[in-house]
Amino acid sequence: MTKKSLFLFTILPVMLFAQHTVKGTFSPAEQFTFAFLYRVTP
Known about the structure:
By secondary structure, this protein is mainly α. The chain has one domain. It is built from one helix and no strands. The longest helix is centred in the first third of the chain and has 15 residues, at 3-17.
């Protein structure tokens, strides 16, 4: 197995499953420098 195919087999699934979008508005925006995002599962 070449390095290129190993790279594709490890990175490609991550890219396919990580296509979710989170949208929102921080108000007032000046008071926020970062946000913690996490997924809650039952």
